[in-house]
Amino acid sequence: MLTLVIGNKSYSSWSMRPWMLLESFQIPFDEIVIPLYVEGSKQQILKHTPSGKVPVLIDGETHVWDSLSICEYVAEKFPDRAIWPKDAQARALARSMSAEMHSSFQALRQQCGMVVHRKKGPVEFSADTLADIARIESMWAFSRAKYAKDGPFLFGAFSAADAMYAPVVVRFDVYQPKISATTRAYMDAMTQTPAWKKWMAGAAAETWRIPRFE
Ligand SMILES: N[C@@H](CCC(=O)N[C@@H](CS)C(=O)NCC(=O)O)C(=O)O
């Protein structure tokens, strides 16, 4: 049995990615939620990974940390599942988009932190944040145009790329920047999945609040 160690569902965007992946592919796992940035949380995380960060996936003796690395581990462990798209060209694009998500978009992340219960509405988006949003929308539009015939997600069927972008869907939903109809349709597909609804129900049940993120 796999165990996924995550942070608060209300705030932990990095945790949301592998959680959405496992849940969407109906891969059974136990969940350990560590409330972040409170007394003792670092020590609890360090019991599972020397990185001191969540998420961490535990598979017996193997501890895998970092959300993208966990997606790769899950893809290798379940080779019969299309965790990454089966088509080589689509897979290359899905990995490139996911890696760009992992290494970029600092302005969006900083200005629009993931706080799922935040009152919905826009802020005064900086030029850098608007550039991040435009870049993400252009990638989504490209993959949706190419793979729309196979389903409503970035590469038709749900894949690791969708898991990697799930927190951006939260941010767009909460901060409501001006978006295209294509982006809206993709977000609707994501927010209607059972996995999405389960994550949000878990977040709604949390009572922990981190004042500096509010
Ligand atoms: N690149 C890492 C980032 C992980 C990360 O920054 N996690 C944050 C929570 S979203 C964390 O563990 N913070 C707790 C701390 O630093 O004490 C990943 O993708 O997993």
Describe the structure.
The protein contains nine helices and four strands; from the N terminus they run E-H-E-H-E-E-H-H-H-H-H-H-H. The protein is an alpha+beta fold and 214 residues long. It folds into two domains: 2-81, Glutaredoxin, CATH 3.40.30.10; 88-196, Glutathione S-transferase Yfyf (Class Pi), Chain A, domain 2, CATH 1.20.1050. The protein has a four-stranded mixed β-sheet with strand order 2-1-3-4, covered by helices on one side. Helix 1 (13-24) crosses helix 9. The longest helix is centred in the middle third of the chain and has 21 residues, at 127-147. The chain is globular and about 45 Å long.
Write the layout of secondary structure elements.
Layout: E1 2-6, H1 13-24, E2 29-33, H2 41-46, E3 56-59, E4 62-65, H3 67-77, H4 88-103, H5 106-111, H6 127-147, H7 160-175, H8 181-191, H9 194-205
Parallel strand pairs: 1-2
Antiparallel strand pairs: 1-3, 3-4
Helix pairs in contact: 1-3, 1-7, 1-9, 4-7
Bound molecules: glutathione.
Residues 7, 12-15, 36, 42, 52-55, 66-67 line the site of glutathione.
